[in-house]
Structure formats: structure tokens, C-alpha cells
Design goal:
By secondary structure, this protein is of the alpha+beta class. The protein is built from 13 helices and 24 strands. It folds into 3 domains: about 130 residues, no CATH class; about 120 residues, Sandwich (Immunoglobulin-like); about 240 residues, 3-Layer(aba) Sandwich (Rossmann fold). The N and C termini lie far apart (about 65 Å).
């Protein structure tokens, strides 16, 4: 029996190990978000999760908890969904407020027939803005679960401002997205094998038993050792002269991803409008004690001195835009990007293409030159190292593990085996290390439990890094909000509501490390300007980078 077969046999027993307590917490977290589809129905059938001997008891508890929730039924009439064009916004209070006061509004949703909604669960996004001074601030939305919502927004600059409210995703689209992710189960991913003139392909899955049923016990390649943040198996190619070692690439097809959506869901996912037409105008006056003041007073404490543990608990917006600059509300952040304060530091960016935006933007804004010393050219899936000799700065970009977009490399096994855990744990002794981790865009199309598995493994890697590296700071980038349609087959795959669930999963998984890991909540910047694309504009990326650097650098005098 070869090494791969032995590893596959062992992995069958240890496939996905999530401590029962953590699994329970994560599932309860999901239940809180799924409450809007409450109705008498059979329990939601959870995907099989393999763990330790206590998992059966935990599973029974979870089934009981989920018994009252229906499994994301398909909508039948799109006119029964919340219709932004018919919905209303009502201001609670005066149109004139003072600086720092809170603006409150009621949102009453109506369906396409003009009838008020009586259930909650729709995903609303609100902001206060003034384009003439390039100012905007995100609002907070409270769902009363009866078709009405309360929006609260702080008045942070003087002058006129307008309130905008979007029905970003009706509850029917959220339910469809969760249903698709439950059923899809990696049926799009294939491993491609090639050896000289022979080629073949097979299905891949993090669940060994799925492939065991398709290919047999001895006909599965175990790539879990190299894909260290998620168990990963692929069927062995049934072609002569091909074996597991001839894996050369991954292919992905979304052909059947939205095959099961109803006509109603298709109509709602293609709906071009999502903003409630009525805009409420607000006049913001300066306070009596500071009549010349145009914005709220900034905090005196620098972000370097701020207790970053509090960031994990923050419920209010982290900042606002004024004259195009992102201004933090809880600490005094940087006003620009210099980069000199990164001197003698080794920085690692590990994640998807939205984090690559950070790496590239920072590199482009440095006031000194940096030389690329390593570049594996495979589109965004490349490992890149840049060295800035003037200030002894090393910038490293590392793409995350499978699942990823389609890619091809000459030898994918070593490409994936060099994870951030191995790399950062073995840095030169005495190095000043900064690690930024992000996982969202590529994993968010799959069952939610696999995201939890990823995050649990990432936490383990980070704990190992803390044990081995004395001077290291770790940042976790949370998902941002967006509303993107890139391809007609992708009409329903991108609800940013999934990011809200992922954020709660990360908050739960990282409990106990809040004092050591700094969380970066970037959704506020994207809500403030109503971002629609997955990859934000440079203005938003700049805000995100400034927020990161504010916890690393002091303002240059």
C-alpha cells in the first residue's frame, strides 16, 4: 500500500474535526440568522460531519434545534417579495439635527402587490451621504421581523445630507443562496491529470466518503497533507500511465449551480433596482459650543495605543468618509500612506484576490522602490515576494488553499504545501512579522460548514505561529458588503449576506485570541459608499489599507 493510500485511510477517520462545543456554537450562530424562514416543517438535513466519538450526541442536539426551520423553500411568486419601489421611509424626528446627534428612520417594506410585508429577514443597507464634500457614513439596520426596520445613522459632518436605503437582497434570494450552498457540495471541482500523451479528470471533495462511493476505497487521491486548511480528496484517474502524482490543475464549472432555482428566484436575482426611491434630506448644524466645526471631533487616542480587543465587540460603524478620506471613530488613524514606518518588517498577505488588492495598492503607493525577487506567474494565484532595500521591508503575497478559481501550475502539490503557517513559523529569528489573513470570495459558494473547518484550521496555524515567533502581529480581514452580478450563470451566487454569517463564525472561532489577533471590519467603508462590486474601487482599498497601517504605524510628523 503506497503512502497516498495510507493517508487516505487515516483521513477517513479524521476527516473534519470540529470540537463538539465549537460546532454547537457555530450552528446556533447560523440558526440566529436563519430565523426569518421559520415555519413548521421537517428538520433541516445537515451535511455529515465527521468528528470525535461525541459527535452523535451533538448531532442529535443540532437536529432538535433545527426541527422548526424549513429547508429554504423555493419562492413561487416574485411579487410577494419586498419591492423597493413600493416601500417607504419615514423620518422619526426633525429634518434638522446637530452634529453628533443620531438620525432615526423607519423603513416599511411592501411587496409587489402594494401590501405591507409582515415578515422580516430582508437584507437592507443604509447610508447618509453628501457628494459635494465626498462624505458618507454607514447606517445600522434593526430588523423587527414584521416587515418594518429601524435605521440609525450618526450625523458626523455639517451641511445637507441625504439618507439612502437599499433592499440589497430580499429574503427569498438569501434563502435560495443558503439552499444552493447546502446542495452544491463541491460538485463543480475536478482534478485534471496529465502525463505525456495521457490525460484524465476526476471529481474532488473534502468528504472522503463521497468519493469512496463513486470510485471505491482504493481509488481516491488524498491531497489533504498539502491542502492544509481543508481535507481534500480527488478520484484517481482511470487512465493508463496516470496516478495521483500526475495532478496538474483544477477546473471548475458553474453549469448547474443555479439549475434548481425557481422562476421567482431567477426574476428576483435579475432585478435591476434595489434602492427605495424616497431620499430623506437632513440638515446638520454645528454644536453651539463649536460653531465653526465641520466634522465630529476625532478621537485623541492613536490606533497604536487603542485596545484592539474591543474591535471584536464593536457594534457601531468603525468610521466615515469626509473629503474622500476614511476617518476612524474609535481611534486616530493615519491620514495617508507613506510606508517608511514598515521599515525592518516582513509582511505576509494570505488570502483571495480582494486581499491581493491590498498588497498591490500598498506597493503602488510606497514612496520608494521595491524589487520583485520571486514571482510565480499564475494570474492572481501566484506567490510573490518584493524587497524594499531602502527600508529593509519584505512584502509577501500568498494565495489561499483549495477551493480556488481555475488554475494550472506545473506542480500544484508543492505550490499548495507552502502555507502561511509553515512559512511564518520558520521566519528568521528576531524578525518583526505582520500577517494579514483573509478567506471569503472562493469558499463562500460552498456549504457553510466547510468555511468553519477552514477557520478552525487557520486558528490552529495562528496559535502555532504565536508559539514559535516572538514578534508577530496577526490581522484578520472580515468580509465586506457588495452586490455583484458578473455572469448570467452567477445570478444568485453572490449575496453578501453570507459574509455576515461568516463574520459571526470567525468571531466565535477566535474567542480566546481576541487580545492577540486584530480584526479588521471593512464592511462599513463599503456600506458607506454603496459598493456593488466584489473588488472595491481604489478609494475604498485606500481606506482599508489606512485602517490596517493605523495599528502598525504612528502618524509621521
Amino acid at each position: 500500500m503506497n503512502q497516498l493510500d495510507l493517508q487516505a485511510k487515516r483521513s477517513k477517520k479524521r476527516l473534519i474535526c470540529i470540537p463538539p462545543g465549537l460546532l454547537l456554537v457555530l450552528t446556533i450562530c447560523l440558526i440566529l440568522h436563519m430565523g426569518y424562514i421559520r415555519a413548521p416543517a421537517p428538520p433541516l438535513r445537515l451535511p455529515v460531519i465527521y468528528a470525535n466519538a461525541n459527535i452523535d450526541d451533538v448531532q442529535r442536539q443540532l437536529n432538535e434545534l433545527l426541527r422548526e426551520y424549513k429547508p429554504f423553500q423555493r419562492c413561487k411568486d416574485s411579487l410577494l417579495a419586498a419591492d423597493p419601489r413600493r416601500s417607504k421611509i419615514e423620518l422619526k424626528g426633525d429634518h434638522v439635527v446637530n452634529l453628533t446627534e443620531t438620525v432615526r428612520l423607519s423603513v416599511i417594506l411592501y411587496d409587489g402587490y402594494g401590501r405591507p410585508k409582515t415578515t422580516g429577514g430582508d437584507h437592507l443597507r443604509a447610508r447618509l451621504y453628501n457628494n459635494s464634500v465626498d462624505a458618507s457614513v454607514p447606517g445600522q439596520v434593526l430588523d423587527h421581523r414584521n416587515g418594518t426596520y429601524t435605521v440609525t445613522i450618526e450625523a458626523l459632518w455639517t451641511g445637507w445630507a441625504a439618507v439612502e436605503v437599499e433592499v440589497l437582497f430580499p429574503r427569498e434570494i438569501i434563502a435560495a443562496g443558503l439552499r444552493i450552498r447546502t446542495a452544491w457540495n463541491f460538485s463543480d471541482l475536478r482534478a485534471n491529470f496529465r502525463n505525456k500523451n495521457s490525460s484524465g479528470a476526476s471529481l474532488c471533495n473534502p468528504d472522503f466518503q463521497v468519493l469512496e462511493r463513486l470510485y471505491g476505497k482504493s481509488a481516491v487521491c488524498n491531497f489533504s497533507y498539502w491542502n492544509k486548511t481543508l481535507p481534500w480528496f480527488c478520484g484517481k484517474p482511470h487512465v493508463r500511465h496516470l496516478s495521483c502524482k500526475h495532478w496538474v490543475s483544477i477546473s471548475r464549472s458553474w453549469h448547474n449551480f443555479t439549475e434548481g432555482i425557481s422562476k421567482c428566484e431567477k426574476e428576483l436575482s435579475e432585478r435591476a433596482y434595489n434602492t427605495i426611491p424616497k431620499k430623506v434630506l437632513i440638515k446638520i448644524l454645528p454644536t453651539r459650543s463649536a460653531k465653526s466645526q465641520v466634522t465630529v471631533e476625532q478621537p485623541h487616542i492613536t490606533c497604536m495605543d487603542y485596545n484592539t480587543t474591543q474591535l471584536w465587540y464593536k457594534s457601531k460603524p468603525t468610521g466615515y468618509f469626509y473629503k474622500g478620506n476614511w476617518i476612524l471613530r474609535h481611534c486616530k488613524g493615519l491620514s495617508g500612506i507613506d510606508g517608511k514606518c514598515l521599515g525592518d518588517k516582513t509582511i505576509y498577505f494570505w488570502g483571495d484576490s480582494t486581499l491581493l488588492q491590498w498588497h498591490n495598492y500598498l506597493l503602488s503607493k510606497l514612496t520608494f522602490s521595491c524589487k520583485i525577487v520571486q514571482n510565480d506567474k499564475h494570474t492572481w494565484r501566484r506567490t510573490t515576494t518584493c524587497f524594499c532595500s531602502k527600508y529593509n521591508i519584505t512584502l509577501n503575497w500568498m494565495p489561499h488553499n483549495i477551493p480556488v478559481s481555475p488554475f494550472q501550475v506545473k506542480n500544484p502539490i508543492p505550490f499548495f504545501s507552502n502555507t502561511f503557517g509553515d512559512t511564518v513559523s520558520n521566519v528568521k529569528k528576531g524578525s518583526d512579522v505582520i500577517l494579514i489573513v483573509n478567506l471569503y470570495a472562493h469558499i463562500q459558494m460552498y456549504p457553510l460548514k466547510y468555511f468553519a473547518v477552514h477557520i478552525v484550521e487557520i486558528r490552529k496555524m495562528i496559535e502555532t505561529i504565536f508559539e514559535k515567533v516572538y514578534n508577530v502581529r496577526v490581522f484578520i480581514k472580515l468580509p465586506h458588503t457588495f452586490r455583484e452580478i458578473r455572469h448570467k450563470k452567477w445570478k444568485i451566487v453572490q449575496p453578501s449576506y453570507i459574509g455576515i454569517i461568516y463574520t459571526d463564525i470567525m468571531r466565535n472561532v477566535f474567542k480566546g485570541l481576541y487580545q492577540k489577533v486584530i480584526v479588521l471590519d471593512n464592511k462599513d467603508a463599503t456600506i458607506a459608499i454603496g459598493v456593488s462590486r466584489l473588488h472595491p474601487a481604489p478609494k475604498v482599498v485606500k481606506a482599508m489599507i489606512n485602517q490596517l497601517l493605523s495599528y502598525i504605524c504612528n502618524e509621521q510628523k
